[in-house]
Write a structure and sequence with these properties.
718 residues; alpha/beta; TIM Barrel; Rossmann fold; Immunoglobulin-like; 3 domains; five-stranded mixed sheet; 23 helices; 27 strands; binds 1-deoxynojirimycin
């Protein structure tokens, strides 16, 4: 028996036993921050015990709107009323979308995944939690773990990309960082794994649309990151807006209880997405708000975000018998358990102190550096100290887009531009050429006088994030024209691409001598990029998503099963047979990224070519390793990747599945043996019923630089 858990249980039951039905439902109610004259009535609702949690922002797509400085005094006043004047004295849980930074903004989550450095990601989320809790935020709606194969979806920027293994690694890192080593401490913040589930599969990348996901895909692709978050101790989960196969997740017992709780082992509480409960009417599974409330709570949805459906209708639902009070008690029990575990009763108030953010900014710069992916480099980077550099393009003087979407508290005016940072590094050897406009005439002379032209291009943050899907994932026509024009000067050109999502690269990569994909990388983006351009650091990011040649090749993802016909385009087998008009092999595949040196891999060696299933079941692991040699002149980091292929199984398995990665610094001329221990958890898959199976047979093991590696060995499970 765990005494802490028992104590919590006793405390929870003691509180519940004294609560009225109305007060219980109040704990399940999460309105957003009141505006203007709404504040007084809001305080009265707190006084009556009708508000269990407050969403510290305004509007469903808060990440797209300016929210203003957090009014700590106001929230403290609400808390005082809750603790001192409400019937049960239960503190309010304050939640905010602290997605990839608070005052210090870190790279967008997709970029973080590109770092392939979960340890650093975890450290950065610790910084984020320290800043956010200082402003009284108890709960953040992150990590967003939606696997996504469609770059048109604006929210692809908020997640870990296309791979479940990377998704799981990021989930552990973020939950660990946000919640810290002890969730009851005042600088630990509750994490919320979202959006459960399948939201990233919205049809056509159109936000909030339907999804069609087989159970087999759900268990193998969409669920692993959530399982990892649960295992890492995430105490809350947010349900998703979408339906899966005709079932809105908000009202689905299958997804919220049978899979999330029974299969994945989640025992915290589930919050709805914004207004999702009443949206069941629009989705066509309920006719009245009372039905919406009943369906949702009976499905296992504990807290209602914003739409007042629970607080206004659940009492009636209990009276009419569609919801039992026991179901409400169970939801309240979950909410109170989390509040107690989070130490909310011990430290309910914000005590905003002056924070020295110097080390947070340093971490942000380190992560921005590690997230940047060098896609191409034909003898131009790093730029020689003596070179005259022309800097051109709409991102040369840009600040706000560097921060990315879902930046509620970061300040654009405090964000250095690329021009400022490069000028610091290059001094008067830098020409900033018409950087704020794309007008051309006056640039000719300056370009002609430069040795290297850096084109700072990309997409605006306003084209990314919630409700911001695009149908065209190429960069804008004027930027394409700029690249073409720059090329005509016969200078070396470097494309620095500030994008949130993967963009179609075919049209532009051929015209650039070097390409660095730097994402929307936060407060320190510009400094990190300048460091990379001038060789102060070597790029080490790797793609967590495929970069297609054209938008029309979507969906294009690496962990695809094999066709029976000879048309496995991703892996280069007869791509011409896929489309007669274009080559659908990726422009840059999953896991790809270069640096300022070369690495050579030995063939992988496995300690044994056979392992028995019973040994695996008993916990035995097998080691596979390869020697990786840095053959160049620069010390740099390599992300060594392990993929497997289950050659023949009872269900088709992907042609490659990532099962390990290690980011390793290797000195110039040095060799490092990189080893991976693989075991039962790595070698199996889930069947359509969600049972994990490991089958006998051959498994290919690949160790290499990206998913296209053919550097392989084979073992057999006997
Ligand atoms: C809607 C978004 O889908 C969700 O991610 C966010 O946390 C909530 N709004 C609250 O802002």
């Amino acid at each position: 028996m765990n005494t802490m858990t028992d104590d919590v249980k006793v405390r929870v039951e003691k509180i519940i036993s004294k609560m009225s039905l109305r007060a219980k439902i109040g704990q399940l109610n999460q309105p957003e921050t009141p505006v203007g004259s709404e504040a007084e009535e809001f305080k009265n609702a707190v006084r009556r015990g009708e508000i269990g949690s407050v969403l510290m922002s305004v509007g469903a797509t808060a990440g797209n709107d300016a929210q203003g400085e957090i009014n700590v005094d106001f929230y403290n006043e609400l808390q005082r009323i809750a603790v001192e004047e409400s019937p049960d004295g239960i503190p309010i849980l304050f939640g905010r979308d602290v997605i990839h930074g608070h005052k210090t903004v870190f790279p967008i989550p997709l970029a973080m995944a590109a770092s392939f450095n979960p340890e650093l990601v975890g450290k950065c989320y610790r910084d984020i939690a320290v800043e956010a809790t200082n402003d009284g935020i108890h709960w953040t709606f992150t990590p967003m773990l939606d696997l996504c194969r469609d770059p048109r979806w604006g929210r692809i920027i908020e997640g870990p990309g296309e791979d479940p293994y990377v998704g799981a690694a990021i989930a552990r890192a973020i939950v660990g960082g946000v919640q810290g080593d002890d969730i009851s401490k005042s600088d630990s913040m509750l994490a919320c794994a979202k959006h459960f589930i399948g939201y990233g599969a919205s049809e056509g990348g159109r936000d909030y649309h339907r999804t069609e996901i087989s159970d087999y895909s759900l268990y193998n692709y969409y669920l692993p990151a959530f399982r990892a978050a649960v295992k890492a101790g995430a105490l809350t989960v947010m349900s998703s807006f979408n339906d899966v196969n005709g079932q809105p997740v908000t009202s689905s017992k299958k997804y919220l209880t049978d899979i999330l709780r029974d299969k994945a082992g989640f025992d915290g509480f589930v919050v709805s997405d914004y207004d999702a409960v009443t949206q069941l009417i629009k989705q066509g599974v309920a006719e009245t708000p009372e039905q919406c409330a009943a369906l949702s709570i009976n499905a296992g949805l504990d807290m209602d975000m914003h739409d007042r459906c629970y607080i206004d209708y659940l009492e009636n639902a209990v009276k009419s018998g569609t919801v039992s009070e026991a179901v409400i008690d169970e939801a309240v029990r979950r909410v109170l358990t989390v509040k107690i575990k989070a130490g909310l009763f011990e430290h309910p108030f914000a005590e905003r102190k002056e924070l020295d953010r110097t080390s947070h900014l340093a971490d942000a710069r380190a992560l921005a550096t590690e997230s940047a992916v060098l896609l191409k480099n034909e003898g131009v980077l790093p730029i020689a100290k003596s070179a005259k550099v022309g800097l051109i393009g709409p991102f040369a003087n840009e600040r706000r887009s560097l921060l990315g979407s879902w930046t509620l508290d970061g300040k654009a005016e405090e964000t250095p531009t690329l021009a400022e940072e490069m000028r610091k590094a290059a001094g008067d050897k830098l020409n900033v050429i018409n950087s704020s406009t794309l007008a051309w005439d006056s640039t000719n002379k300056n370009i002609a006088a430069s040795d290297v032209v850096v084109l700072a291009i990309g997409e605006s943050w306003t084209a990314t994030g919630e409700s911001r899907a695009v149908s065209d994932i190429t960069i804008s026509a004027d930027q394409k024209a700029l690249i073409k024009k720059a090329k005509t000067y016969g200078k070396k050109t470097v494309g620095v691409i500030f994008c949130g999502r993967p963009i179609a690269m075919e049209e532009i990569s051929g015209d650039l001598d070097a390409v660095v994909y730097v994402w929307h990388a936060g407060s320190e983006a510009a400094g990190a990029v300048s460091d990379i351009l001038f060789g102060v650091s070597s790029p080490s990011g790797r793609l967590p998503v495929t970069l297609p040649r054209r938008a029309t090749h979507i969906p294009l993802y690496y962990n695809v099963t094999s066709s029976g016909r000879p048309v496995d385009c991703y892996y280069g087998e007869n791509p011409g047979n896929c489309y007669v008009d274009s080559m659908p092999v990726p422009c840059y595949p999953f896991g790809f990224g270069l640096t300022y040196t070369e690495f050579e891999y030995s063939a992988p060696v496995c300690e044994s070519d056979k392992i028995s299933l019973s040994d695996l079941e008993a916990g035995k692991r097998i080691t596979v390793s390869a020697d990786v040699k840095n053959t160049g002149a620069v010390t740099a980091k390599e992300t060594v990747q392990l993929y497997i292929r289950d050659v023949c199984a009872s269900l088709m398995r992907p042609m490659r599945e990532l099962k390990g990665f290690k980011k390793t610094q290797i000195a110039s001329g040095g060799t490092v043996k990189v080893s991976f221990d693989i075991g039962y958890d790595d070698l199996g898959f889930y069947d359509e019923s969600g049972n994990y199976v490991v089958e006998k047979g051959k498994i290919k093991l690949f160790i290499g630089k990206n998913c296209l590696t053919e550097n392989q060995t084979e073992i057999e499970i006997i």
